[in-house]
Design goal:
Helix content is about 40%, strand content about 20%. It has helices at about 1-10, 20-25, 35-45, 80-85, 110-115, 145-150, 190-205, 205-210, 275, 280-285, 335, 350-395, 405-420, 420-425, 465-475, 480-500, 505-525, and strands at about 50-60, 70-75, 120-125, 140-145, 160, 175-180, 215-220, 220, 240, 245-255, 255-270, 295-300, 300-305, 325-330, 435, 445-450, 455-460. A hairpin with a 2-residue loop joins β12 (about 295-300) and β13. The chain is elongated, with a radius of gyration of 32 Å. The N and C termini lie far apart (about 105 Å).
Length: about 525
């Protein structure tokens, strides 16, 4: 009797109440199915895999919620039986605390799997030393089952057994196959929806590995890398440009210890407003542009979080959709970034925020301002389009412009191409006339830039005629306003073209234009 009571007391005082722990831990840490599967992909990468095949398939079942099974197959180094048994333990990693790989704590395989399914089975194989090419590797298997644990039928990881008839996927010299069944916590019940979300999330998180040659498939289709910076030429969608130089910060891992430091690298990109502004709202959502502003935090080539980080007092605005940021850091800074064991969330510490926020916030504000100006320029371009169209259509009725170009007009064209991408990247080479708004160096209401056959009418937004007459007309909503504005723009285009056509008289005409502009300003100025 004494022995029995003693045994009960020992069980009651165990560090972990296993049946309750396994149910509670299913709720810990993972944002969803993609995050949980990412843990298995991490393990495959760390095992040296070059190919990873993810399968999401509907199975016949009486319970609709458990009718989907998920598997992850890799061609990594595989595991021997003791390693397999450790891999299924919570905290049972053979690389505990090792910062050189993607995992550190050995929680990934069991925690991720049971967060989505009630049962996980693992098959693994590796060629024994000295084996010949025709020798078939031995496949070992073990598993975890939530229901068996809750019923106290499973109190330790089952000893791996040799699989007599292994799944057909278990091929090649080495590899591992992880199978989830009785999946009761997947994000969705439809296979197509799960696959679509996996394509987006995994394509972004593992983009750097995919670009280096890792091949990931989902239900047989190769996964494309998604670059949230829209920069990499091999990404599904690209077209952005780097903004400024890469920033590098040396940061303490521990704010109280100056001996341990790591490096943080930051890149910003600017998205092409002039090329993408006409995309439909559906298309903007599809490519992740709408409401996609944020910072991608990357550890060891793997994205661990995406959000609004290190922006100080700056709030997210619509114009912030038009730039992106990526932060890469040394794993020694895990604690500074507050990386959780699930590698899907960052909680930057105060000393890191203090080190990075001033420069990152200033850059974000600058990019926000540039996006705002770019959209203003795009709207102006749309206003000018009718006058430009008419001028281009009727240019053949006029005598060709002289081949020689005034040096001042040519220099202004080069300057404008730097600040107005639409001039640099002409979609239609046949377009000879353009109109833009741009502050000029003198007090002229308009001036002209020229390069070869191209002529640009430059309207000065600082002139009183622009403020008092042109701008109200361009923003007016009366039915005749667009027609009147187009005719006024044609009048000014005609004046600019006449000036460009005057052989040997350009300096005199430019002086006359300046005097005319100053007289017009004097007449309009109320002061």
């Amino acid at each position: 009797m004494t022995k029995t009571v003693h045994s009960v007391r020992r069980a009651d005082c165990s560090i972990i109440a296993l049946d309750k722990f396994i149910q509670a831990t299913r709720d810990s840490g993972y944002k969803g199915t993609a995050s949980a599967i990412s843990e298995l992909v991490d393990n495959s990468i760390q095992a040296g895999a070059t190919r990873i095949a993810i399968s999401v398939a509907a199975k016949t079942s009486d319970d609709e919620e458990k009718a989907i099974e998920v598997s992850v197959l890799d061609n990594g180094c595989g595991m021997d039986p003791p390693t397999l048994r450790q891999a299924l333990r919570f905290g049972g990693s053979t690389r505990f605390g090792d910062r050189r790989g993607l995992g550190r704590y050995g929680m990934g395989l069991p925690n991720a799997s049971l967060s989505q399914a009630r049962r996980v089975a693992v098959f693994t194989w590796r060629s024994p030393k000295g084996a010949r090419g025709h020798d078939t590797p031995t496949v070992y298997s073990s598993y975890l089952d939530v229901d068996e644990i809750v019923r106290c039928e499973m109190i330790e990881v089952p000893e791996p057994k040799v699989v007599k008839v292994s799944p057909s996927e278990c091929a090649g010299n080495s590899g591992t196959l992880v199978c989830w069944s009785q999946c009761d916590r997947l994000d969705n019940r439809r296979v197509s929806t799960i696959v679509r979300k996996l394509e987006v999330e995994l394509g972004r998180r593992f983009r750097h590995f995919i670009w280096k040659g890792l091949r990931i498939t989902i239900n047989g289709d190769t996964l494309d890398a998604f670059d949230p910076l829209y920069l990499h030429p091999k990404a599904e969608i690209s077209g952005a440009q780097l903004f400024g130089e890469e920033m590098r910060f040396e940061v303490r891992a521990d704010p109280l210890d100056s001996r341990k430091t790591g490096w943080v690298s930051v890149r910003f990109t600017e998205l092409p407003v002039h090329a993408w502004h006409k995309l439909s709202n559906d298309e903007k959502r599809r490519i992740g542009l709408s409401k996609g502003a944020g910072v991608s935090i990357v550890r060891g080539g793997r994205e661990v979080d995406y959000g609004w980080f290190f922006m100080g007092s700056k709030h997210r605005e619509n114009y912030d959709d038009w730039w992106r940021c990526e932060i890469q850091f040394d794993p020694i800074l895990d604690e500074a970034f507050g990386i959780t064991h699930t590698k899907q969330q960052a909680r930057p510490q105060a000393h890191l925020i203090e080190a990075l926020s001033p420069d990152l916030e200033a850059t974000a504000r600058a990019l926000n301002g540039r996006a705002r100006k770019a959209h203003t320029a795009v709207k102006a371009r749309e206003r000018f389009s009718e006058a430009e169209r008419i001028a281009n259509e009727r240019d053949h009725l006029l005598r060709p412009l002289p081949r020689s170009v005034d040096p001042t007009a040519r220099a202004l064209m080069r300057e404008l191409e730097e600040s107005h991408p639409t001039l640099r990247d002409r979609p239609n080479e046949a377009d000879r006339y353009s109109i833009i708004e741009h502050s000029v160096k003198d007090t002229s209401f308009f001036t002209l830039a020229r390069d070869g056959d191209r002529l640009v009418l430059v309207l000065n937004p600082d002139h009183p005629f622009y403020r008092e007459i042109y701008k109200p007309l361009s923003e007016g909503e009366a039915p005749r306003d667009p027609q009147l504005r187009a005719k006024l723009e044609l009048l000014l285009l005609a004046a600019a073209r006449s000036e460009a056509a005057a052989r040997g008289k350009v300096p005199a005409l430019a002086k006359h234009r300046l005097e005319w502009s100053n007289t017009l300003a004097a007449f309009l100025n109320d002061k």
